Amino acid sequence: MGGAVVDEGPQGVKAPDGGWGWAVLAGCFVITGFSYAFPKAVSVFFKELIREFDVGYSDTAWISSILLAMLYGTGPLCSVLVNKFGCRPVMMIGGLFASLGMILASFATSIIHIYLCTGVITGLGLALNFQPSLIMLNRYFSEKRPLANGLAAAGSPVALCCLSPLGQKLQYHYGWRGGFLILGGMLLNCCACGALMRPLLPPKKTQELEITSRTAEDDKKPQPKKKLLDFSVFMDRGFVIYAVAASIMVLGLFVPPVFVVNYAKGLGYEDTTSALLLTILGFVDMFARPLSGILAGMKCVRPRSVYLFSFAMIFNGFTDLIGSQANDYAGLVVFCIFFGMSYGMVGALQFEVLMTIVGTEKFSSAIGLVLLMEAIAVLVGPPGAGRLLDATHQYMHVFLLAGCEVTLSALVLALGNFLCISRKHEDPEAKMEMAVTASEKEGLNPPVGVGEEDEREAKPRGKKNGKVSAMETGEMMVKETGEEGEENNETSL
Protein backbone atom coordinates (compact mmCIF):
# COMPACT_ATOMS: atom_id res chain seq x y z
CA MET A 1 0.00 0.00 0.00
CA GLY A 2 2.96 2.29 0.46
CA GLY A 3 3.42 2.61 -3.30
CA ALA A 4 -0.22 3.36 -4.03
CA VAL A 5 -1.15 6.48 -5.95
CA VAL A 6 -2.68 8.86 -3.47
CA ASP A 7 -5.69 10.63 -4.97
CA GLU A 8 -5.21 14.00 -3.36
CA GLY A 9 -7.44 15.78 -5.83
CA PRO A 10 -4.63 17.76 -7.50
CA GLN A 11 -5.19 21.42 -8.07
CA GLY A 12 -5.90 22.45 -11.64
CA VAL A 13 -7.78 19.22 -12.43
CA LYS A 14 -11.41 19.96 -13.20
CA ALA A 15 -14.02 17.45 -12.07
CA PRO A 16 -15.15 15.63 -15.25
CA ASP A 17 -18.85 15.60 -14.21
CA GLY A 18 -19.30 12.42 -16.21
CA GLY A 19 -17.15 9.95 -18.08
CA TRP A 20 -15.54 7.60 -15.57
CA GLY A 21 -17.43 9.50 -12.89
CA TRP A 22 -20.54 7.46 -13.72
CA ALA A 23 -18.62 4.28 -12.86
CA VAL A 24 -17.58 5.90 -9.57
CA LEU A 25 -21.24 6.80 -8.96
CA ALA A 26 -22.29 3.18 -9.57
CA GLY A 27 -19.72 1.99 -7.04
CA CYS A 28 -20.86 4.60 -4.52
CA PHE A 29 -24.48 3.50 -5.04
CA VAL A 30 -23.62 -0.10 -4.13
CA ILE A 31 -21.43 0.89 -1.18
CA THR A 32 -24.08 3.23 0.26
CA GLY A 33 -26.65 0.45 -0.05
CA PHE A 34 -24.50 -2.06 1.81
CA SER A 35 -23.45 0.43 4.48
CA TYR A 36 -26.91 1.63 5.52
CA ALA A 37 -29.04 -1.43 4.72
CA PHE A 38 -26.78 -4.17 6.09
CA PRO A 39 -27.28 -3.37 9.82
CA LYS A 40 -31.06 -3.58 9.26
CA ALA A 41 -30.89 -6.68 7.01
CA VAL A 42 -28.94 -8.63 9.65
CA SER A 43 -31.91 -8.24 12.03
CA VAL A 44 -33.75 -10.87 9.94
CA PHE A 45 -31.54 -13.53 11.57
CA PHE A 46 -32.16 -12.39 15.16
CA LYS A 47 -34.83 -14.99 15.99
CA GLU A 48 -32.54 -17.82 14.92
CA LEU A 49 -29.66 -16.36 16.92
CA ILE A 50 -31.87 -16.05 20.02
CA ARG A 51 -32.81 -19.72 19.70
CA GLU A 52 -29.24 -20.84 18.93
CA PHE A 53 -27.43 -19.04 21.77
CA ASP A 54 -30.30 -18.74 24.29
CA VAL A 55 -30.08 -14.95 24.57
CA GLY A 56 -32.64 -12.14 24.61
CA TYR A 57 -33.68 -9.77 21.84
CA SER A 58 -31.77 -6.92 23.46
CA ASP A 59 -28.59 -9.01 23.26
CA THR A 60 -28.97 -9.60 19.52
CA ALA A 61 -29.89 -5.93 18.94
CA TRP A 62 -26.32 -5.06 19.93
CA ILE A 63 -25.15 -6.54 16.62
CA SER A 64 -26.84 -3.76 14.60
CA SER A 65 -25.81 -1.15 17.18
CA ILE A 66 -22.14 -2.14 16.96
CA LEU A 67 -22.32 -2.14 13.15
CA LEU A 68 -23.68 1.41 13.13
CA ALA A 69 -21.24 2.53 15.82
CA MET A 70 -18.29 1.26 13.73
CA LEU A 71 -19.71 2.87 10.58
CA TYR A 72 -19.93 6.28 12.26
CA GLY A 73 -17.34 6.14 15.02
CA THR A 74 -14.36 5.15 12.85
CA GLY A 75 -14.73 8.26 10.71
CA PRO A 76 -11.43 9.90 11.80
CA LEU A 77 -9.55 6.63 11.25
CA CYS A 78 -10.93 6.42 7.70
CA SER A 79 -9.90 10.04 7.08
CA VAL A 80 -6.33 9.34 8.20
CA LEU A 81 -6.06 6.23 6.02
CA VAL A 82 -7.53 7.97 2.96
CA ASN A 83 -5.20 10.97 3.33
CA LYS A 84 -2.22 8.64 3.65
CA PHE A 85 -2.91 5.87 1.11
CA GLY A 86 -5.77 7.08 -1.09
CA CYS A 87 -9.36 5.91 -1.55
CA ARG A 88 -8.87 2.88 -3.80
CA PRO A 89 -6.56 0.76 -1.59
CA VAL A 90 -8.50 1.66 1.56
CA MET A 91 -11.78 0.55 -0.02
CA MET A 92 -10.38 -2.74 -1.31
CA ILE A 93 -8.96 -3.62 2.11
CA GLY A 94 -12.29 -2.58 3.63
CA GLY A 95 -14.14 -4.95 1.29
CA LEU A 96 -11.96 -7.82 2.47
CA PHE A 97 -12.65 -6.95 6.11
CA ALA A 98 -16.41 -6.71 5.52
CA SER A 99 -16.50 -10.12 3.83
CA LEU A 100 -14.14 -11.76 6.33
CA GLY A 101 -16.26 -10.66 9.30
CA MET A 102 -19.42 -12.33 7.99
CA ILE A 103 -17.58 -15.49 6.96
CA LEU A 104 -15.99 -15.85 10.41
CA ALA A 105 -19.35 -15.13 12.07
CA SER A 106 -20.88 -18.13 10.27
CA PHE A 107 -18.65 -20.34 12.46
CA ALA A 108 -19.59 -18.55 15.71
CA THR A 109 -20.05 -20.50 18.92
CA SER A 110 -21.25 -17.60 21.08
CA ILE A 111 -22.99 -14.25 20.73
CA ILE A 112 -19.73 -12.48 21.71
CA HIS A 113 -18.09 -14.09 18.69
CA ILE A 114 -20.77 -12.52 16.47
CA TYR A 115 -20.29 -9.14 18.17
CA LEU A 116 -16.60 -9.20 17.26
CA CYS A 117 -16.95 -10.61 13.74
CA THR A 118 -20.18 -9.12 12.37
CA GLY A 119 -20.19 -5.99 14.51
CA VAL A 120 -16.55 -4.94 14.70
CA ILE A 121 -14.82 -6.50 11.67
CA THR A 122 -17.68 -6.17 9.15
CA GLY A 123 -18.59 -2.75 10.56
CA LEU A 124 -15.01 -1.53 10.13
CA GLY A 125 -14.93 -2.91 6.58
CA LEU A 126 -18.13 -1.08 5.62
CA ALA A 127 -16.79 2.13 7.16
CA LEU A 128 -13.58 1.85 5.12
CA ASN A 129 -15.76 1.69 2.01
CA PHE A 130 -18.49 4.22 2.77
CA GLN A 131 -16.45 7.31 3.53
CA PRO A 132 -13.86 7.00 0.69
CA SER A 133 -16.65 6.41 -1.84
CA LEU A 134 -18.22 9.76 -0.90
CA ILE A 135 -14.83 11.48 -1.13
CA MET A 136 -14.27 10.14 -4.66
CA LEU A 137 -17.79 11.15 -5.69
CA ASN A 138 -17.01 14.68 -4.52
CA ARG A 139 -13.86 14.74 -6.68
CA TYR A 140 -15.48 13.44 -9.86
CA PHE A 141 -18.56 15.68 -9.78
CA SER A 142 -18.88 19.42 -9.41
CA GLU A 143 -21.73 20.90 -11.48
CA LYS A 144 -23.72 17.66 -11.33
CA ARG A 145 -22.73 16.84 -7.75
CA PRO A 146 -26.21 17.31 -6.17
CA LEU A 147 -27.69 14.86 -8.66
CA ALA A 148 -24.80 12.43 -8.12
CA ASN A 149 -25.29 12.58 -4.35
CA GLY A 150 -29.01 11.97 -4.72
CA LEU A 151 -28.49 8.95 -6.98
CA ALA A 152 -25.80 7.50 -4.71
CA ALA A 153 -27.99 7.98 -1.62
CA ALA A 154 -30.79 6.04 -3.36
CA GLY A 155 -28.66 2.93 -2.89
CA SER A 156 -29.81 2.74 0.74
CA PRO A 157 -33.56 2.14 0.20
CA VAL A 158 -32.94 -0.01 -2.89
CA ALA A 159 -30.55 -2.29 -0.98
CA LEU A 160 -32.90 -2.46 2.01
CA CYS A 161 -35.78 -3.58 -0.21
CA CYS A 162 -33.52 -6.29 -1.69
CA LEU A 163 -31.45 -7.47 1.26
CA SER A 164 -34.28 -7.99 3.76
CA PRO A 165 -36.28 -10.43 1.57
CA LEU A 166 -33.02 -12.07 0.47
CA GLY A 167 -32.02 -12.60 4.10
CA GLN A 168 -35.35 -14.28 4.82
CA LYS A 169 -34.91 -16.63 1.84
CA LEU A 170 -31.35 -17.49 2.85
CA GLN A 171 -32.40 -18.19 6.42
CA TYR A 172 -35.25 -20.44 5.24
CA HIS A 173 -33.08 -22.51 2.87
CA TYR A 174 -29.61 -22.46 4.50
CA GLY A 175 -30.11 -21.37 8.11
CA TRP A 176 -28.38 -18.40 9.69
CA ARG A 177 -24.88 -19.86 9.23
CA GLY A 178 -25.35 -20.42 5.51
CA GLY A 179 -26.98 -16.98 5.20
CA PHE A 180 -24.02 -15.28 6.88
CA LEU A 181 -21.60 -17.15 4.61
CA ILE A 182 -23.44 -16.12 1.42
CA LEU A 183 -23.79 -12.51 2.56
CA GLY A 184 -20.06 -12.49 3.29
CA GLY A 185 -19.43 -13.54 -0.30
CA MET A 186 -21.72 -10.76 -1.54
CA LEU A 187 -19.72 -8.18 0.42
CA LEU A 188 -16.68 -8.99 -1.74
CA ASN A 189 -18.41 -6.76 -4.31
CA CYS A 190 -17.10 -3.89 -2.19
CA CYS A 191 -13.63 -4.73 -3.49
CA ALA A 192 -14.90 -4.44 -7.07
CA CYS A 193 -16.48 -1.07 -6.23
CA GLY A 194 -13.19 0.04 -4.70
CA ALA A 195 -11.35 -0.88 -7.90
CA LEU A 196 -13.61 1.60 -9.75
CA MET A 197 -12.27 4.51 -7.68
CA ARG A 198 -9.58 5.57 -10.12
CA PRO A 199 -7.59 8.60 -8.88
CA LEU A 200 -7.92 11.84 -10.82
CA LEU A 201 -4.59 12.78 -12.41
CA PRO A 202 -3.67 16.06 -14.10
CA PRO A 203 -2.81 16.16 -17.84
CA LYS A 204 0.76 15.18 -18.78
CA LYS A 205 1.87 18.75 -19.51
CA THR A 206 0.47 20.02 -16.23
CA GLN A 207 2.02 17.06 -14.44
CA GLU A 208 5.46 17.84 -15.88
CA LEU A 209 5.16 21.50 -14.88
CA GLU A 210 4.15 20.48 -11.34
CA ILE A 211 7.10 18.10 -11.07
CA THR A 212 9.48 20.82 -12.28
CA SER A 213 8.08 23.41 -9.88
CA ARG A 214 8.14 20.96 -6.96
CA THR A 215 11.74 20.06 -7.70
CA ALA A 216 12.69 23.73 -7.70
CA GLU A 217 10.81 24.32 -4.44
CA ASP A 218 12.37 21.25 -2.84
CA ASP A 219 15.83 22.65 -3.60
CA LYS A 220 14.96 25.87 -1.83
CA LYS A 221 13.01 24.64 1.19
CA PRO A 222 11.39 21.39 2.38
CA GLN A 223 7.61 21.18 1.91
CA PRO A 224 5.46 20.67 4.99
CA LYS A 225 3.92 17.22 5.42
CA LYS A 226 0.28 16.77 4.52
CA LYS A 227 -2.05 16.63 7.52
CA LEU A 228 -3.58 13.20 8.01
CA LEU A 229 -6.50 14.70 9.91
CA ASP A 230 -7.18 18.39 9.43
CA PHE A 231 -8.70 19.86 12.58
CA SER A 232 -8.65 23.34 11.06
CA VAL A 233 -12.20 22.66 9.79
CA PHE A 234 -13.36 23.58 13.29
CA MET A 235 -12.19 27.13 12.52
CA ASP A 236 -14.96 27.29 9.91
CA ARG A 237 -18.16 28.55 11.51
CA GLY A 238 -20.24 26.88 8.82
CA PHE A 239 -18.76 23.48 9.62
CA VAL A 240 -19.28 23.87 13.38
CA ILE A 241 -22.93 24.84 12.88
CA TYR A 242 -23.44 21.90 10.52
CA ALA A 243 -21.78 19.40 12.90
CA VAL A 244 -23.88 20.51 15.88
CA ALA A 245 -27.11 20.47 13.85
CA ALA A 246 -26.36 17.04 12.34
CA SER A 247 -25.64 15.57 15.76
CA ILE A 248 -28.96 16.81 17.13
CA MET A 249 -30.77 15.57 14.02
CA VAL A 250 -29.41 12.02 14.31
CA LEU A 251 -30.85 11.76 17.84
CA GLY A 252 -34.36 11.56 16.37
CA LEU A 253 -33.93 10.80 12.66
CA PHE A 254 -33.60 7.02 12.93
CA VAL A 255 -36.21 6.55 15.68
CA PRO A 256 -39.48 6.38 13.62
CA PRO A 257 -38.29 3.64 11.20
CA VAL A 258 -37.29 1.53 14.21
CA PHE A 259 -40.62 1.89 16.05
CA VAL A 260 -43.25 2.32 13.30
CA VAL A 261 -43.78 -1.45 12.84
CA ASN A 262 -44.28 -2.00 16.58
CA TYR A 263 -46.53 1.08 16.60
CA ALA A 264 -48.84 -0.70 14.14
CA LYS A 265 -48.66 -3.95 16.11
CA GLY A 266 -49.63 -2.03 19.23
CA LEU A 267 -52.77 -0.87 17.42
CA GLY A 268 -53.70 -4.53 16.85
CA TYR A 269 -52.56 -5.15 13.27
CA GLU A 270 -50.89 -8.35 12.03
CA ASP A 271 -47.12 -8.74 11.62
CA THR A 272 -47.16 -8.86 7.81
CA THR A 273 -49.50 -5.87 7.58
CA SER A 274 -47.33 -3.92 10.00
CA ALA A 275 -44.11 -4.81 8.15
CA LEU A 276 -45.65 -3.45 4.93
CA LEU A 277 -45.24 0.05 6.38
CA LEU A 278 -41.46 -0.16 6.03
CA THR A 279 -41.85 -1.27 2.42
CA ILE A 280 -44.00 1.78 1.69
CA LEU A 281 -41.50 4.04 3.44
CA GLY A 282 -38.56 2.56 1.51
CA PHE A 283 -40.36 2.76 -1.84
CA VAL A 284 -41.10 6.48 -1.42
CA ASP A 285 -37.57 7.09 -0.11
CA MET A 286 -36.16 5.40 -3.22
CA PHE A 287 -37.59 8.07 -5.53
CA ALA A 288 -37.33 11.02 -3.15
CA ARG A 289 -33.51 10.95 -3.06
CA PRO A 290 -32.76 11.38 -6.79
CA LEU A 291 -35.52 13.97 -7.13
CA SER A 292 -34.05 15.91 -4.21
CA GLY A 293 -30.66 15.80 -5.95
CA ILE A 294 -32.19 17.26 -9.12
CA LEU A 295 -33.88 20.00 -7.08
CA ALA A 296 -30.67 20.84 -5.21
CA GLY A 297 -28.77 21.10 -8.51
CA MET A 298 -30.98 23.88 -9.91
CA LYS A 299 -29.13 27.17 -10.36
CA CYS A 300 -31.54 29.13 -8.19
CA VAL A 301 -31.50 26.53 -5.39
CA ARG A 302 -27.89 25.34 -5.22
CA PRO A 303 -26.44 28.51 -3.60
CA ARG A 304 -29.09 28.07 -0.88
CA SER A 305 -28.70 24.31 -0.42
CA VAL A 306 -28.17 24.79 3.34
CA TYR A 307 -31.66 26.24 3.67
CA LEU A 308 -33.12 23.47 1.49
CA PHE A 309 -31.52 20.98 3.90
CA SER A 310 -33.05 22.89 6.81
CA PHE A 311 -36.45 22.69 5.13
CA ALA A 312 -36.03 18.92 4.68
CA MET A 313 -35.30 18.54 8.40
CA ILE A 314 -38.28 20.70 9.40
CA PHE A 315 -40.45 18.65 7.03
CA ASN A 316 -39.21 15.47 8.67
CA GLY A 317 -39.69 16.83 12.19
CA PHE A 318 -43.25 18.02 11.57
CA THR A 319 -44.06 14.67 9.95
CA ASP A 320 -43.04 12.97 13.21
CA LEU A 321 -45.07 15.40 15.29
CA ILE A 322 -48.23 14.94 13.20
CA GLY A 323 -47.67 11.19 12.80
CA SER A 324 -47.63 10.80 16.58
CA GLN A 325 -51.40 11.42 16.53
CA ALA A 326 -52.11 8.51 14.15
CA ASN A 327 -54.59 6.05 15.68
CA ASP A 328 -55.27 3.66 12.76
CA TYR A 329 -53.45 1.92 9.91
CA ALA A 330 -54.47 4.50 7.30
CA GLY A 331 -52.90 7.25 9.38
CA LEU A 332 -49.66 5.28 9.66
CA VAL A 333 -49.60 4.73 5.87
CA VAL A 334 -49.92 8.48 5.28
CA PHE A 335 -47.20 9.05 7.87
CA CYS A 336 -44.84 6.61 6.10
CA ILE A 337 -45.42 8.29 2.73
CA PHE A 338 -44.53 11.75 4.02
CA PHE A 339 -41.76 10.44 6.24
CA GLY A 340 -40.25 8.63 3.22
CA MET A 341 -40.26 11.90 1.25
CA SER A 342 -38.63 13.94 4.02
CA TYR A 343 -36.22 11.14 5.00
CA GLY A 344 -35.13 10.85 1.36
CA MET A 345 -34.53 14.58 1.12
CA VAL A 346 -32.37 14.54 4.25
CA GLY A 347 -30.41 11.52 3.01
CA ALA A 348 -29.74 13.10 -0.38
CA LEU A 349 -28.71 16.52 0.95
CA GLN A 350 -26.72 15.87 4.13
CA PHE A 351 -23.35 15.14 2.49
CA GLU A 352 -23.96 17.51 -0.43
CA VAL A 353 -24.30 20.39 2.04
CA LEU A 354 -21.14 19.32 3.89
CA MET A 355 -19.22 19.24 0.59
CA THR A 356 -20.48 22.73 -0.19
CA ILE A 357 -19.42 24.07 3.20
CA VAL A 358 -15.85 22.71 3.47
CA GLY A 359 -14.85 22.08 -0.17
CA THR A 360 -13.02 19.18 -1.77
CA GLU A 361 -9.67 19.66 -0.05
CA LYS A 362 -10.95 19.36 3.53
CA PHE A 363 -13.90 17.05 2.91
CA SER A 364 -12.01 13.86 3.77
CA SER A 365 -11.23 15.19 7.26
CA ALA A 366 -14.57 16.93 7.74
CA ILE A 367 -16.72 13.89 7.04
CA GLY A 368 -14.68 11.75 9.43
CA LEU A 369 -15.09 14.22 12.27
CA VAL A 370 -18.81 14.69 11.59
CA LEU A 371 -19.44 10.95 11.55
CA LEU A 372 -17.62 10.61 14.88
CA MET A 373 -19.90 13.23 16.46
CA GLU A 374 -22.97 11.53 14.96
CA ALA A 375 -21.84 8.14 16.31
CA ILE A 376 -22.50 9.31 19.86
CA ALA A 377 -26.01 10.46 18.90
CA VAL A 378 -26.71 7.18 17.07
CA LEU A 379 -25.90 5.20 20.21
CA VAL A 380 -27.97 7.49 22.45
CA GLY A 381 -31.04 8.17 20.24
CA PRO A 382 -32.90 4.84 19.75
CA PRO A 383 -32.07 3.47 23.24
CA GLY A 384 -33.23 6.73 24.79
CA ALA A 385 -36.49 6.50 22.86
CA GLY A 386 -36.84 2.91 24.04
CA ARG A 387 -36.53 3.96 27.68
CA LEU A 388 -39.16 6.63 27.12
CA LEU A 389 -41.45 3.97 25.65
CA ASP A 390 -40.87 1.69 28.66
CA ALA A 391 -41.77 4.54 31.00
CA THR A 392 -44.89 5.79 29.18
CA HIS A 393 -46.02 2.72 27.17
CA GLN A 394 -47.20 5.10 24.42
CA TYR A 395 -45.58 5.46 21.02
CA MET A 396 -46.98 8.97 20.72
CA HIS A 397 -44.36 10.33 23.14
CA VAL A 398 -41.54 8.61 21.23
CA PHE A 399 -42.56 10.22 17.94
CA LEU A 400 -43.08 13.60 19.62
CA LEU A 401 -39.56 13.48 21.06
CA ALA A 402 -38.05 12.51 17.69
CA GLY A 403 -39.95 15.30 15.93
CA CYS A 404 -38.79 17.92 18.43
CA GLU A 405 -35.15 16.84 18.10
CA VAL A 406 -35.14 16.96 14.28
CA THR A 407 -37.01 20.29 14.22
CA LEU A 408 -34.52 21.77 16.70
CA SER A 409 -31.62 20.70 14.48
CA ALA A 410 -33.24 22.45 11.51
CA LEU A 411 -33.59 25.68 13.47
CA VAL A 412 -29.95 25.48 14.62
CA LEU A 413 -28.74 25.04 11.03
CA ALA A 414 -30.97 27.69 9.43
CA LEU A 415 -30.62 30.38 12.10
CA GLY A 416 -26.91 29.69 12.56
CA ASN A 417 -26.23 30.18 8.87
CA PHE A 418 -28.50 33.21 8.58
CA LEU A 419 -27.05 35.01 11.60
CA CYS A 420 -23.41 33.88 11.56
CA ILE A 421 -22.57 33.10 7.92
CA SER A 422 -24.47 35.83 6.06
CA ARG A 423 -21.56 38.26 6.46
CA LYS A 424 -18.93 35.73 5.53
CA HIS A 425 -18.99 36.48 1.80
CA GLU A 426 -15.82 38.22 0.74
CA ASP A 427 -15.47 41.19 -1.56
CA PRO A 428 -15.29 40.02 -5.21
CA GLU A 429 -12.20 42.17 -5.75
CA ALA A 430 -10.45 40.42 -2.87
CA LYS A 431 -11.28 37.03 -4.33
CA MET A 432 -9.94 38.08 -7.73
CA GLU A 433 -6.77 39.37 -6.15
CA MET A 434 -6.23 36.05 -4.35
CA ALA A 435 -6.73 34.16 -7.62
CA VAL A 436 -3.87 35.95 -9.31
CA THR A 437 -0.62 34.03 -8.95
CA ALA A 438 2.69 35.55 -8.03
CA SER A 439 4.07 35.17 -11.53
CA GLU A 440 1.09 37.01 -12.98
CA LYS A 441 1.40 39.81 -10.46
CA GLU A 442 4.90 40.58 -11.72
CA GLY A 443 3.51 41.39 -15.17
CA LEU A 444 0.77 43.68 -13.92
CA ASN A 445 0.88 47.47 -13.99
CA PRO A 446 0.88 49.19 -10.61
CA PRO A 447 -2.56 49.31 -9.00
CA VAL A 448 -4.84 52.30 -9.07
CA GLY A 449 -3.78 54.97 -6.69
CA VAL A 450 -0.05 54.99 -7.42
CA GLY A 451 2.01 58.17 -7.58
CA GLU A 452 1.65 60.81 -10.26
CA GLU A 453 5.04 59.88 -11.73
CA ASP A 454 3.77 56.42 -12.68
CA GLU A 455 0.68 57.95 -14.32
CA ARG A 456 2.84 60.29 -16.42
CA GLU A 457 4.91 57.34 -17.60
CA ALA A 458 1.74 55.43 -18.53
CA LYS A 459 0.19 58.21 -20.65
CA PRO A 460 2.86 58.46 -23.40
CA ARG A 461 2.41 54.77 -24.12
CA GLY A 462 -1.24 55.45 -24.91
CA LYS A 463 -0.36 58.36 -27.24
CA LYS A 464 2.38 56.67 -29.17
CA ASN A 465 0.46 54.16 -31.27
CA GLY A 466 -3.02 54.71 -29.97
CA LYS A 467 -3.12 51.14 -28.58
CA VAL A 468 -2.23 49.42 -25.36
CA SER A 469 -1.15 45.74 -25.39
CA ALA A 470 -3.55 43.30 -23.74
CA MET A 471 -2.94 42.34 -20.12
CA GLU A 472 -4.18 38.99 -18.86
CA THR A 473 -4.67 38.50 -15.13
CA GLY A 474 -6.53 35.23 -14.44
CA GLU A 475 -9.98 35.91 -15.77
CA MET A 476 -9.52 39.67 -16.65
CA MET A 477 -8.25 41.22 -19.94
CA VAL A 478 -8.29 44.93 -20.64
CA LYS A 479 -7.83 46.59 -24.04
CA GLU A 480 -7.67 50.31 -24.61
CA THR A 481 -7.79 51.80 -28.11
CA GLY A 482 -7.93 55.29 -29.51
CA GLU A 483 -5.80 58.37 -28.86
CA GLU A 484 -6.22 60.81 -26.04
CA GLY A 485 -9.19 63.06 -26.67
CA GLU A 486 -10.75 60.88 -29.42
CA GLU A 487 -14.42 59.90 -29.22
CA ASN A 488 -13.85 56.22 -30.17
CA ASN A 489 -11.95 55.33 -27.04
CA GLU A 490 -13.06 51.81 -25.93
CA THR A 491 -12.35 49.73 -22.86
CA SER A 492 -13.50 46.09 -22.71
CA LEU A 493 -13.39 43.87 -19.65
UniProtKB/TrEMBL annotation:
UniProtKB keywords: Cell membrane, Membrane, Symport, Transmembrane, Transmembrane helix, Transport
InterPro entries with a match to the protein in the record: MCT, MFS, MFS_dom, MFS_trans_sf, Proton-linked_MCT
Transmembrane segments: 20-39, 60-82, 102-126, 178-197, 239-264, 276-298, 305-323, 329-351, 363-383, 395-421
Stretches the record annotates as Disordered: 437-493
Gene3D superfamilies recorded: MFS general substrate transporter like domains (1.20.1250.20)
Record-level GO cellular component terms: basolateral plasma membrane
Subcellular localization, as worded in the UniProt entry: Basolateral cell membrane
Primary residence: membrane
Keyword Membrane: yes
GO molecular function: lactate:proton symporter activity
Major facilitator superfamily (MFS) profile domain location: 21-421
Compositionally biased tracts (Acidic residues): 483-493
Bilayer topology term: Multi-pass membrane protein
Short name of one Pfam family: MFS_1
Similarity annotation: Belongs to the major facilitator superfamily. Monocarboxylate porter (TC 2.A.1.13) family.
Protein name: Major facilitator superfamily (MFS) profile domain-containing protein
Species in which this protein is naturally found: Channa striata (Snakehead murrel)
